[in-house]
Known about the structure:
Layout: E1 8-9, H1 25-35, E2 40-42, E3 50-52, E4 55-57, E5 64-68, E6 71-75, H2 79-91, E7 95-99, H3 102-108, E8 114-118, E9 120-121, E10 124-125, H4 126-134, E11 141-146, H5 151-159, E12 164-167, H6 172-184, H7 190-196, H8 202-220, H9 225-232, H10 236-245
Parallel strand pairs: 6-7, 6-8, 8-11, 11-12
Antiparallel strand pairs: 1-4, 2-5, 3-4, 9-10
Helix pairs in contact: 8-9, 9-10
Amino acid sequence: MRNAFDIAETQSSSPTGARRHRHSPLLARSLEAHKEGAIAVNTWPASDQVSDGNFAFRGLSSQVTSRVVMKALVVEDDVELGRALVRALEEWGAATTLAETVEAATRLVANVELVVLDIGLPDGSGVTVAEKAAALRPAPLIIAFSGNATAEEAFRLGQLGVRGYLTKPLSLGDFTATVAALLEGAPNLAPFLVATVGREPFQKVLAGVRRTMAEQALARTGGNRTGAARLLGVTRQAVQNIIRDLDIETDDY
């Protein structure tokens, strides 16, 4: 039984058996953006079908995401499923790498913007990869999936800010919707902030929020204060003040 989405076997209608793709206008715009160095991750209407060799991806949603993703990492030891995930992300315009082990993933996770992560890997838990990714600046967005994650693993993923979680076998529709939601929406911080009341001083929490957001914005823009200010929705002078007040080291960006 195949578990790589709803992959349907098809026969290529090309007499040469060459790869054929029926691109939607959204994909065309994504590919054009790719040429300019900014790759928009898009999804297609459900009526579209994107063929690759003897396989076809079906059931894509009509949502369109606006956040730019240039690099993605798929961490999956099931080769068929891993390649299907890679193909889907590449069709959306993301330059995607496949890793099949914790060891390989921890080497490759730096400088990616989206991680699609299986928790059950042959040499350990995907939580280790999530921990490494969460500590990076810029930190990537993470979607985790598993057929048998433990309660401890699920809890730890929540602590690390993993906002997307899917169960196996994967549905391409669910995967598409999760990617779109992750790229479009901000997380609800209220539960985390509520838990700090009475345990941490307000000023310490505020400083932590300012530092984390500033470091992420600076890392995503290569240390560019103007670009960081744009991401944060503040003035360039405000970014300068945060860097000064919190003694943020900018040489690493």
